[in-house]
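User: I'm putting together notes for a lab meeting next week and I want to include a structural view of one of the chains we've been expressing. I don't have a solved structure, so I'd like a prediction I can at least talk through. The sequence is below, exactly as it appears in our construct file.
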Amino acid sequence: MTPVELSRTVLRAVRRAVDEGELSVTVPARAVVTPPGPGGCGDYATNIALQLARPAGQPPRRVAEILRPRLAGADGIADVVVTGPGFLNISLRRTAPVALVEEILRRGVRYGHADGPPGPGSGQRAHGGGPGRAAAAARAVQLSCPREVRALVVADAAARILRSQGFSVRVTCDDRPEPEWEAFLGVHVDAHGALAPAAPPGGAAEDVRPVPAPADPLVLGRDAARWALLHPAPHDRPRLTDAHLVQRESNPLFRVRYAHARTRALLRNAADLGFGPEPGPPTGPAARLLPALADHPRALAAAARHRGPDRLARHLVTVADALLPLLPSVLPRGAEKPSAAHRARLALAEAAGTVLAGGLSLLGIHAPDHL
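Assistant: Thanks for the context. Below is the predicted structure for the 371-residue chain, given as structure tokens.
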């Protein structure tokens, strides 16, 4: 169960409590689920009871106790514990990691992308009038940026991420970009100068104005240049140095691309040994990796909501750093025969590599199979 699915499960528990007359509140649009904080337990925690306490006119812990049995009975949830003033701490069933890996391998690089038929929140074009057109307008975004290389790269990556979440996006610029920015860095502008509309139909233009690049990034090459401009937060000044090119652990881009390339090499080596990936109960150093993979849909949604490609870049670093300790235990050693544990670790490594490849693609960065 991913954080997005768990959030929906929490909201269904709230809706059941409302329908059964236990709570008198408006069901919120979303429920935040995060790793448990100090004093918490389990796999995830939510503060939904604290959020609903005031409108419900009840103490937060009482609201939590109302929701707890409705959550505990949901598929994929093993246990729910109330801690502190009313935090719901959720433990997932042992089969949940297997289902997570299966979902990632099934969805491929589109894991975490929005799906669904045309309608509210789908971001697909609606025909005719009424709510469908209003919903489509609400999912239309125009990103407007100055003629500056970092602004254009950030707007381009933000547009890719927004489209992955079902938005219709246009990128406009004050003036025509330098040809090499489009050809070499891969930025795309839908309109510029006098041809750029003031705002999308039914929406408003949003300015993209990060701290400008201090120098020409083209000398770094496409991938390193885009990473150097996207990885820092928009209010931070990017460093355009050769540090983004070195192949060592101090370089976050190298760690991300190296981790992905290692997963591809493991799949090739396993095939040579006569076995392939097969999702199963995780063994070995997977404790940090599974939550990072499960958090990918939330990271994509947050990057889209905040128009922040830097959030996705930092999330990919987290995934890579959690993946690297697992890699030495994936293949059999010496005369050891491939076992179910090896197949499960290989499937987990492949899932992590898939997440890294999909995330790098949204940043406009190549994920090499060999490095």
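A couple of points you could mention at the meeting. The beta strands are 33-34, 44-46, 77-83, 87-92, 140-145, 168-173, 191-192, 205-207. DSSP finds 13 helices and eight strands in the chain.

User: Perfect, that's what I needed.
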